## 1
Amino acid sequence: MTAILIDDMPQALQVLQSDLNDLFPDIQIIGTADSVVSGAKLLRQEQPDLLFLDIMLGDGTGFDLLEILPNITSKIIFVTAYEEHAIRAFRFAAIDYLLKPINPDDLKDAVLRARQQIARPAESIDILKATMKSPDTLPTRITLHTQERIAVVNIDDIIRCESDGNNTIFILDSGEKIFVTKTLKQFATLFEQHTFYRTHQSHLVNTKHIQEYVRKEGGYLKMKNGDDIPVAVRKKAEVVAMLDNL
């Protein structure tokens, strides 16, 4: 694989280059740049397999560079000094990122994932940009990785999520099911500010799609698509109170 590194901090650039050489001697670093302008110039000449792109550059942002070169085919790993809302943004967009100072183990994991990565739709970058630009606004879309593709989904179109071991099945209002290799707990945390509620260890529902709560047979939720979702015994009173407030 070939790689290009773009960062406006010389020391950070040097450390990243050194760590890549140590961990992945088979990756050829074919260029470095320290700005949007120099990065765009370099990427017009070279198309690397991997692009390590700092978000905040002296003359703009990594997003500015991607707008200059919308047809770039490199697999992108963003580098950022931000935490909090930036991490949330990356998770909704399902895009790899590295926090400064870069941990070598995180770098190794990111590169290994990039090697297996499917071509990413442009919408993933759009989700990332929008979420980072307005950290107080809830994202309306999420990127979901499957083994075959990367799907961009409207969050309101998700009826529910169901645990399948360490994986999660998304059920959409179109009837489509999407199998994602992440735990339900991860998505419950990601959606905690949205209209989602965990009724059971194995079930996370979008409250916008609840049709009714049925008290018989131990109590369950009937969703608008006809699915019946169990409610854990300890959650029953909480579910009733939640429905009263909808």
## 2
Amino acid sequence: MKPTFVKILTHALIFLVLTAILLFAVFYGLSKYTRHNELIVVPDVTSLTVDQAAVFIEKKNLRFQVIDSIHTKTQMPGAIVEQKPAAGAHVKEGRYLFLVINAYSEEKTSVPDVLDFSQRQAIALLEANGIVVSDVEYMPSEYRDLVLDVRHQGKRIPAGSRLDRGARVTLVVGQGSSMSEIRSPVLQGLSLSEAIDVLHARNLNVGDVFYDQTPKNSSEAMKYRVYRQDPIGETPVVMGKKVQIWMSEAADLYEADPEVWSFAQDSIN
């Protein structure tokens, strides 16, 4: 074997060995730097305050940042209502947890100007602003079905006033120059929100609401349907009359012949 070839082969082997050592050092260093195999389980800090959560987060060598706040009545003010990454996720040391907390005060909304709007337009505009129309009162007026006033807790609320989102208000609506007589709608089979919309469309109000079994929460309540009402459907009533309704999940009740409940109501009266 020629000395020149041996020399070249030796240099090549040395180069390969050095390259292998260098690559090993790089990958080993990166593994140590990124802590590739050292993952931390994210703790569950929802329902805790930020100060309480900080203890658990810092013990895990993690960091946090509050990025938003919302308002919910199911959590105490200042409590964490959402976290990202979620509890149980695996992250690296030093990772940020992004937190959403429950606001310390009620979210406010502005009362729009609905005077001289029709009742239907006013309800749509108020509810679009997060305000609930819980009742409608009628009074003699030259202009029928126009909104004359908006009241909250018995007091007049001027346009632009700030109320808690979800606040309940009463609309005062003109009924024309005389007490007009109308017929109550048939509500059987409708949800509570649908029944309220239908009553408002007829210039009537919902009165007491009775459930055959008390729903556990608002989601369950949405499954209930009207199976009985007083006054019964198609009964002559005056504008503003309150209609009592009975709710049930049982289809055999709200799908029953309306004449059954008409007879029952006549018997009670």
